[in-house]
């Protein structure tokens, strides 16, 4: 594997911006952090260890998009058109979610049109983020080689000051993207430092007993229906959890007439909405809020999906907990079901 | 990085309504022909599969393929929602969009030499019609053919003539039940489909049972059949769910870890037994 030394992260970003549209998580004055395009030469500091409010999900699976148009003559697909892009500085949890959606949407032309044009630059986290539990669901804190094209990992700091970065080229596309860049080869010490860093970071995570117990209870079908129903009183069907969840992939379609064209659109949907499964006849297999809540968490933690998807549906980012206006985000739910 | 375009599975194909048959006040049948003649000739389906039917600018719905009759694709539709209400207004000569067929159909190929039992309720018989016809056309390829169909009122019964014809076939039994009928009629029982189970004659150890109807009717019937001695793995059910993509992407028909659209709509009873009894999936 090609590994290089890098003094400043922005140096790499600027190089990539020569030939790609680069997106990076940028903090605004309110402290919220969102994915924004960064042009070549732009002076925006890169801040490691941030958790953007949203994952990069919408850069691949658009919140709303047109699928096709019928113009009176024929059906014409409306694929997104993109030049090459870089998503820069993605943490392990979000990268794990992207690889999860890559599997789910492998035959989806809209998702793939964006995904195939995108280079992923991952970054190892060096401390747990607020509410994050990636370690407990095998999604972090370090980036696995197969889910990013390039990986940044910090060199040991001196007196709290970062002394530079190692740049790991983990795919052919990643290698090609930095070819021609003036980089020093790293000596072999990088991997033992990285491993030590990972162990130190993992040791700093808070207790995950409730997560582990909750997963066991969901899989043992040990959570009574009445408890789901009671917990669901806290759910106001705002769908914030599904919107922010980096692995949630449900969508609804709608057809609209625009002038002489018929357009098929799709928009994000959420299984926590009462009408999600409702059929035209009025039959609704999930009319009860408790059943919808069970369905949601079953999807995130059931072993039944591991065979298909290779992992749990949850990547431990904790965003559902921080956005939930009730108290049915992941930590609250897992606390309650593991103690029931 | 060069994008490798993949065939777009969401695009419908245009088809023309060649004939429209009003079956009952709220049920109609379309006979369709793809506008592209080559596509029309190539189109094949398995018994029990479905198509996505699209009305321009209104919406797209899953409808099981009833049959191919006189080389025309046949769909029978009940007017229940926004899209089917709009579809009911279309006349012969109008066009719609179709994509499909989708899903896993009935295991007809595994039924050779065995008794074949169909248990259906209401319009739930539509996904089974082509399979019944297949078994009816080759009575010697299979063992006994038993058809049990239930409706609410006798007047809800579609294709009565077809059922009467099947009744005349050798080694074949047609049993009908009406749950809300007050008077006794020849060839009809009063009650739900399960009242017919006692009269059905077939080899419980060497049969395939195919169920189609509401979830409750299917899970109740499957349970009773298992008690009567039919091995669970010989019982198949066709499920109905809200579907918007038909290819396992949109999530609406997710049923446990399966998608009804691509892993079903036909499942064996052991595959869905646990989840079927658990509302919400």
From TrEMBL, chain A:
For the keyword Metal-binding, the answer is: yes
Q: Does the keyword Metal-binding apply?
A: yes
Q: Which residues cross the membrane?
A: none
Keywords associated with the record: Iron, Iron-sulfur, Metal-binding
Q: Which residues form the 4Fe-4S ferredoxin-type domain?
A: 226-256, 305-336
User: Entry's Pfam families?
Assistant: Fer4_22
Q: Which GO terms describe its molecular function?
A: iron-sulfur cluster binding; metal ion binding
Q: Which InterPro entries match?
A: 4Fe4S_Fe-S-bd (IPR017896), 4Fe4S_Fe_S_CS (IPR017900)
This one is known as 4Fe-4S dicluster protein
**Organism of provenance:** Reinekea marinisedimentorum
Automatic annotation (TrEMBL), chain B:
Does the UniProt entry include the keyword Metal-binding? yes
InterPro entries, per the entry: Cyt_c3_hydrogenase_gsu (IPR012165), Dihydroorotate_DH_Fe-S-bd (IPR019480), FAD-bd_FR_type (IPR017927), FNR_nucleotide-bd (IPR039261), OxRdtase_FAD/NAD-bd (IPR001433), PyrK_electron_transfer (IPR050353), Riboflavin_synthase-like_b-brl (IPR017938)
Which GO biological process categories is it annotated with?
A: pyrimidine nucleotide biosynthetic process
**Which cofactor(s) are needed, names only?**
[2Fe-2S] cluster
Specify the superkingdom: Bacteria
Residues that, per the record, bind [2Fe-2S] cluster? 245, 250, 253, 261
GO MF terms here are: 2 iron, 2 sulfur cluster binding; flavin adenine dinucleotide binding; metal ion binding; oxidoreductase activity
Q: Which UniProt keywords apply?
A: 2Fe-2S, Iron, Iron-sulfur, Metal-binding
Q: Where are the transmembrane segments?
A: none
Name all FAD-binding FR-type domain ranges.
Answer: 10-108
Q: What does the note under cofactor report? A: Binds 1 [2Fe-2S] cluster per subunit.
Q: Name one Pfam family in it.
A: DHODB_Fe-S_bind
Keyword ATP-binding among UniProt keywords: no
Q: What is this protein called?
A: NAD(P)H-flavin reductase
The lineage is: Bacteria, Pseudomonadati, Pseudomonadota, Gammaproteobacteria, Oceanospirillales
């Amino acid at each position: 594997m090609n590994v290089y030394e890098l003094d400043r992260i922005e140096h790499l970003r600027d190089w990539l911006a020569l030939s790609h549209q680069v997106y990076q998580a940028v903090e605004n004055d309110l402290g919220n952090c969102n994915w924004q395009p960064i042009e070549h030469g732009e002076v925006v500091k890169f801040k490691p260890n941030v958790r953007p409010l949203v994952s990069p999900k919408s850069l691949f699976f658009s919140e709303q998009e047109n699928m096709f148009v019928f113009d009176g003559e024929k059906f014409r697909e409306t694929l997104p058109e993109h030049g090459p892009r870089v998503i820069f500085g993605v943490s392990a949890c979000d990268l794990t979610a992207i690889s999860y959606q890559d599997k789910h949407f492998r035959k989806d032309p809209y998702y793939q049109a964006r995904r195939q044009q995108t280079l992923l630059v991952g970054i190892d986290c060096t401390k747990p983020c607020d509410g994050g539990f990636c370690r407990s669901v095998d999604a972090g804190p370090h980036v696995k080689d197969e889910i990013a094209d390039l990986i940044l990992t910090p060199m040991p700091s001196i007196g709290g000051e970062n002394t530079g970065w190692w740049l790991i080229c983990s795919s052919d596309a990643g290698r090609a993207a930095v070819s021609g860049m003036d980089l020093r080869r790293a000596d072999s010490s990088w991997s033992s430092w990285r491993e030590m860093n990972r162990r130190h970071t993992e040791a700093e995570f808070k207790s995950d007993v409730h997560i582990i117990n909750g997963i066991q209870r969901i899989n043992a079908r040990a959570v009574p229906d009445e408890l789901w129903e009671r917990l669901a009183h806290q759910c106001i069907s705002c769908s914030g959890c599904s919107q922010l969840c980096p692995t949630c992939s449900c969508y609804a379609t709608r057809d609209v007439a625009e002038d002489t064209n018929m357009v098929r659109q799709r928009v994000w949907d959420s299984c926590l909405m009462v009408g999600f499964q409702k059929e035209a006849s009025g039959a609704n297999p999930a009319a009860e809020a408790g059943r919808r809540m069970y369905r949601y968490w079953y999807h995130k933690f059931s072993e039944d999906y591991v065979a298909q998807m290779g992992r749990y549906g949850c990547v431990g980012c904790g965003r559902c907990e921080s956005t939930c206006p009730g108290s049915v985000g992941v930590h609250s739910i897992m606390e309650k079901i593991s103690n029931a | 990085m060069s994008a490798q375009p993949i065939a777009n599975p969401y695009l419908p194909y245009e088809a023309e309504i060649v004939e429209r048959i009003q079956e009952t006040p709220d049920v109609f049948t379309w006979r369709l022909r793809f506008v592209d003649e080559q596509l029309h000739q190539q189109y094949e389906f398995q018994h029990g599969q479905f198509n996505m039917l699209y009305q321009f600018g209104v919406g797209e719905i899953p409808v099981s393929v009833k049959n191919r009759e006189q080389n025309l694709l046949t769909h029978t539709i009940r007017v229940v929602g926004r899209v089917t209400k709009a579809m009911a207004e279309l006349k012969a000569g109008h066009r719609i969009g179709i994509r499909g067929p989708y899903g896993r159909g009935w295991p007809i190929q595994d039924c050779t030499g065995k008794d074949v039992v169909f248990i259906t309720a209401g319009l739930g018989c539509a996904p089974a019609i082509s399979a019944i016809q297949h078994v009816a056309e080759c009575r010697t390829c299979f063992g006994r053919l038993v058809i049990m169909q239930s409706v609410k009122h006798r007047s809800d019964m579609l294709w009565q003539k077809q059922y009467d014809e099947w009744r005349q076939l050798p080694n074949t039994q047609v049993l009908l039940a009406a749950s809300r009928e007050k008077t006794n009629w020849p060839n009809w029982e009063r009650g739900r489909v399960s009242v017919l189970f006692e009269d059905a004659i077939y080899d419980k150890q060497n049969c395939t049972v195919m169920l189609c109807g509401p979830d409750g009717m299917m899970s109740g019937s499957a349970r009773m059949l298992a008690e009567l001695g039919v091995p669970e793995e010989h019982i198949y059910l066709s499920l109905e769910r809200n579907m918007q993509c038909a290819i396992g992407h949109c999530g609406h028909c997710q049923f446990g870890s399966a998608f009804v659209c691509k892993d079903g709509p036909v499942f064996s009873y052991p595959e869905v037994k646990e989840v079927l009894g658990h509302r919400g999936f």
